[in-house]
Structure formats: C-alpha cells, structure tokens
Design a protein that fits this description.
Layout lengths: L2 H18 L10 H13 L3 H13 L7 E6 L7 H10 L4 E6 L3 H12 L4 E6 L13 E7 L8 H10 L1 E11 L4 H9 L8 H8 L6 E6 L2 E3 L5 H12 L5 H14 L7 E3 L2 E6 L4 H4 L3
Parallel strand pairs: 1-2, 1-4, 2-3, 4-5
Antiparallel strand pairs: 5-9, 6-9, 7-8
Helix pairs in contact: 1-7, 1-10, 2-9, 3-4
C-alpha cells in the first residue's frame, strides 16, 4: 500500500471507529455462525492452500526417519493430512499427534490421519496446557492459526518449544495486524487477540534463531452474493455486524483492496520457523 493509499485506509478506519463507538460491544458469533462463516470465508480465500503447499514444501525433502510431528490446535486435519502424506510418500515412518479440544473436530482429524498409509495418528481432546502429548518430544511442532485464544501466549509458546526434540523445529503460522485484522481491532476490541507481532516479541528472548516470512494470501470478495456476504463479513471481523455498519465496512475493504478488478483484499499470514539454523534448513526441516 502506497503512502497515500495507507492514509486513505487509516482515515476510513477512523471514520468506522467513530461510527461504532456508541455501539460497542457488538454481539459475538455463535458456534453455528462461526462455523458457517468460517467455511464461506475459506471458500473465498486462497490462504489455506498457500499454507498447505508451503508446509508440504518444508517437509518434502526430509530424509530422517522416523519422523514425529505434533500439531497444536490441529482442527479437522485438513492441513495436517497433506503434510502427513508428503512425509509418508518418502517412505518414512510417521507418528502424527494432534491436540484439539473440540471432540467431534478431533475425531475428524484422527479419521483423516489414520487413513494415510505409513502414518500412526493419535489425538488428545484436551487443551495444550492439559495435554500429555505436549510432554513428549517431536521433530516438527506445528501451530497453524491456533494461538489466538490461548489463555497466555507466552506460556503456550513455551510449551510448544519444550516439545521440540534436539535438532527439531517449531513452525508457527499466525495472522499479522494488517488490513483485515485492523477491522477486528476496531469492531471487536474486547477480544484483544494477539497478532503475529506479539508472537515475534514472545519468541525474541528464546535465544534460538527465528526465521520469519510472509505468505501473501488474498480474500476475494468479488463474487460474494447477498446470501453469503453477511456471514463472510461477520467472520472476517469476528462479530455480528449491525446492518448500519455493513456498507461502511465494505467501504473500508474497498479502500484496502488490491489495485485489480473486483474486490480482492490482502489476507497474509506470517510464518515463523524456530530452531532452523539457516534459511536452507528452514526449507527442508
């Protein structure tokens, strides 16, 4: 974003903050609203595909067997299953552990990963702080968009680093406070979510090398129809948007959009690789 475009975006956010001031706190999303909004949001974003491809490229040249992987907040395994397949294709013996406190979601992770030949899958349906799995050691520890709602970010990262075996790596993928998340900060300030800047600060005192890069994903709202627009916008800002604010939120998104046809908004994610000694090692963990 150029200097002038940044100024326009900041001004649009400022106007939105003034409009919402008397309406806070806005109503949060129910579990059903969150699930529907998340599915629609993912359908309009290429971020998950980029994350999956990047993680697979990170592990595809790994030559050490067996490989032990821990995925913190693994969700339904839609990303992890591709990582597991990539590892197993090289003939490695893979143990793939997941931590996921949502029971039905954890069951889907276990079913997906158990179906991959050569992979032994286990899952713990408790939170990271209570998980016995986190007391073991792993060659690769993953935290993909899973550290936003932990009670204490520093404690969670400490537990994750403690689970890394000598010579292993911790890989954290986390959203930065960029254009979309600046909307969250304005419309849901009480959530006080930590963004990637907080992750970087928490990792700074560890003494281990930290490599950081950005995956430049995009949220494409060009063809969002009226039926999908409300839940997608609600999920994007993590609250139920009152009708009086929707047009103004869309105006902010238009100010933040990429200079291309349609309404395409940057939706980046920051990747941290902790423990790799060089960029080359980070490309093949």
């Amino acid at each position: 974003m150029t200097g002038s475009a940044q100024e326009v975006h900041v001004e649009a956010l400022g106007r939105l903050a003034e409009s919402v001031a008397g309406l806070l706190p806005l109503t949060g999303l129910s579990a059903a609203q969150y699930a529907r909004g998340h599915a629609l949001f993912e359908a309009h974003s290429d971020q998950r595909q980029l994350i999956t491809a990047w993680l697979c490229s990170l592990v595809e040249n790994r030559s050490v067997s067996p490989t032990r992987v821990l995925s913190i907040g693994c969700g339904d395994g839609s990303v992890d299953v591709e990582v597991a397949r990539t590892l197993a294709r090289s003939g490695q013996r893979v143990t793939y552990a997941g931590i996921e406190p949502n029971g039905p979601v954890a069951d889907r992770f276990l079913a997906r990963l158990s179906a991959v030949p050569g992979v032994r899958a286990v899952v713990d349906r408790r939170a990271l702080a209570d998980s016995a799995l986190a007391e073991s050691s792993y060659d690769i520890v993953l935290a993909v968009h899973s550290l936003y709602y932990v009670p204490d970010l520093v404690e969670a990262l400490t537990a994750a680093r403690r689970a890394v075996a000598p010579g292993g790596v911790l890989v954290v993928l986390h959203a930065p406070l960029e254009r979309l998340n600046q909307l969250v900060a304005v419309l849901a300030p009480d959530q006080n979510q930590p963004f990637s800047e907080a992750v970087e600060h928490a990792l700074a005192d560890d003494g281990k090398p930290v490599l950081r890069l950005r995956l430049d994903a995009t949220l494409d709202l060009t063809h969002t129809d009226d039926q999908d627009e409300a839940p997608v916008l609600d999920f994007a800002v993590q609250v139920r948007l009152p009708d009086v604010l929707r047009s103004q939120v869309l105006d902010v998104l238009r100010e933040a959009a990429l200079p291309s046809p349609g309404l395409r908004v940057p939706h980046p994610v920051d990747a941290f690789v902790i423990g790799a000694r060089s960029p080359d090692q980070a490309r093949s963990v």
